Structures are given as C-alpha cells and as structure tokens.
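Office hours follow-up: a student asked to see two folded examples consecutively, so here they are.
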Amino acid sequence: MGARQAYSMINCLAYVPLCFFGIIALFVRIIAVVAVNPVIIFIGLFICAETLAITPPRHYPAFLLGLTPVIADWARGTIINGVAVAYLNLTLPNVDFAQNVTLRITDFSYHGLANLAGGSLLQCILITAIFMYMIDRKFIRGAVWSLLASLLSFFGLIHSSNLGVLYNKTDDGWRFTVGYAMMMLLFILCEIAQRRKWIEGPESEPDDLSSEEWHEWNRMQQLNKES
C-alpha cells in the first residue's frame, strides 16, 4: 500500500494519547473484544500478504523465522493462563501459581519456550534483520544488528521476562549475549573474507522500496535478463 516509516510514526503519535489518557480502556469497555479480534486478524493477514508480495523469495526463511517469537509468546501465555484458570480453585492462596506450574512441565522444554517468548516483538525485528542480512551477505549490517541483540539480551529486554543486568549463573541473559557476540564475530570474519573475494559480494537489490516501486524495479530486472 506504499506505507513506509512515517506510517509507524503516525501510529505511534496516535496511540500515545489514547493509552496515556485511558481512552483505550474506555473503548474496550464499550466495544466487545470478539468484535475487534476478527478485524485485527484480517489486518494482520493483509499485512503479511503485502509483505510477502514485495519480499524476494530468498528472504522467506528470515520472514518465517521472525514470526517464531510471537508464536512462542502466544503459546506461553496460553499455557499459563489456560492452566491457571482451569485449576484456580485448587491452588493455595498467595502461591506463585505460574512458577509452580512451569517447574513441573517436563514433556517439552518450557524454559526454552519462555526464552524465545521474552521480548517477542523486539526479537521478531532482530532475528528477521540478522537473517536477512546474512542471506544478502551484508555482513557489516548483520554484525551491527547482532551487537544490538547482544546488548538487549544482557539487560533482559529480549530472551527474558525480567529486566536488569543478567550476569548471574542462573540467568540466561549473558548466555544469549555471548551467543550474539559470537555471531557478530562470525559476521566480521565473513566481511573480511568477502573483501578478499573469498565470498561472493552482497546482493545489489535496493532497500526500502514501496510495493509499487519494488514491482517496477523487479520488472525492469526481468526485462534486463531477457534482453
């Protein structure tokens, strides 16, 4: 639809007063949630379809991988909320029910699910960007995004449900920090190899095009190949 960064900025400016002055809560009381959810789902599906329409096929893995954190966040919330509501009357008062339940989940790695769900929206952006630049062989940009992910992990903004400096032995934040730092180092080594012509150069496709501009650019590329 041609929207770019300004669209997100306008959304931000519109939602700030709605949230700060409690207008969203008023809307929720007046409008039934079941009436709003189908609209949100439709808009989400439309955005995904629009994104895929202008996304080169080589970026599909990054696009799909970038959806996993929000899916994990939904799964974590469903597990905790669903079980908590079902067994609310069977629990003791003043007990951290969510923690007691998660400690007894052994059929799958709930701990890993919780790590993937922490800061899910930020993770979506970071994971998608890192893998897109990896696919495009733009290693410096990938290193910058990996460094950003490393810092956010260390302070608990992603891969964690707790904010703070996560450096204790029982924390996972520093582990993800080390992992992203190693990825950054790998990107730097790949950049050196690319400059020595050991690795193919980066993709030449332009960034930040609207859907119409991208289709026109892609059409011209196809015509050039045919000629």
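And the second, which I mentioned at the end of office hours:
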Amino acid sequence: MTLTDPLTHKATLYTLQSGVLPVYMSSLYCHSCNRRYYHNYYVHKQSSLRTYYGGVPNVIQGAQYFFIESALSGLFANGMVFGWDRLSASNWARIYNCALSEIDPHIANNKLAFASVYEGWNLELRNVDVTNGFFLYSLLLEKSERGGILLLPHDEPSQRDRLKPALAERKKAMEGIGQEHWAHACDLCFVIFEDADGNIMKLQSAHCDGDTIGHRCSS
C-alpha cells in the first residue's frame, strides 16, 4: 500500500512546554482503500465521516489549522473543573498567550523586523480554540475509556457543528445512572444506623457549591 496525493498547509501547534509552534500539516491518500489519512483520523472517499484511530493521541487536531497537545488540553480541563467559573475558555486563552506561548523574545519584541518569520501563521490562541480542543480531547478520552471509536461528520461548516452530535450523544449517555459514581456510597458519605425505636436509618451527606444542591460527595 502506497500513500500518495499529499495535501499540505500551514497550521499552528500549541504545546504545554514548548509554547506555540508554526507547523505544516499533511494528509495522504490511499488508492487501495480509497481513504485519505489525516493526523488523527481518516475519511473514506464514499463517506462523509471522520473515523478516528482510537486512543488519545499526544497531539490533537482541534480544527483544520489548529493542533493542541493532549497535555495542554488536560491542563485546560483541570482548570475549568477546579477553577470554578474563573478559568473560562477566554481566560485560559489569555493565560496561555501571556505566560505559556513562549515566542522567542527577540522576535516578539521586534515584530516588524521579523514579520516574515511567522508570516501566514496565527500564533495567538483563541477562546474557540480552547473550547474545540477541550471538547475533542474529552470525547476521545471518553471513547478510549469505553473501548470505542469516535466518529464525526466531515463535511460541516465549523468544528462546533461537527462536534454537536457527539457531545449530545455523550450528554444523553451521562444522564441518570450513566455517571461513573452515580451509585457511590462509602463510610465517609453514607452511614446506616439503628435509631432509638429500632428503625434502620441512613444518613447521607450532600453539598452545595453555589450552582447545584444535593450532589453526593465524599470529600
């Protein structure tokens, strides 16, 4: 099998430790299986679906011209969870651009002189990039945990539209008993005891975080 017909274009890779990097993205076509192979997925000639390779890759193609490290998406996800509403996608984009992008200082401080170095590349992380990377990373992670393969429509006008069906499917699967710890009970949050009248009683803790009331919690 020989992969031919390369298609190449400029893209941007956002990393956790090396900052933002200008890269080239290429896809290749196989005339034997009639598939075009991209970085994270392939598309059959007679199909309008993106079939992802399985697992969680080190680098995720969040959109056509946008790549992000899984480690960075993981950082964004943890910040959104533990930072409450303070670390939104917009704030994460600002934090990354100010503190983690690490464009060479002599270039950043002399943009006019080095304008041609990064010409044609968008090196500024946007909030939509954070959101797209976060959602795609989460979907790949969930599919990998369940031993499944992610399928997304290929011919959509935007990444947002492309992700909608898979996000709706995951949301439906998480309703009610779909959550991992839905039936959780332990000695910290759930106590069974006998009252003074001999009745078997239970005492279960709940917490309120300002947005929701009644979540069971062991911490």
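Two things to take away from it. The first strand starts at residue 3 and ends at 14. The radius of gyration is 23 Å.
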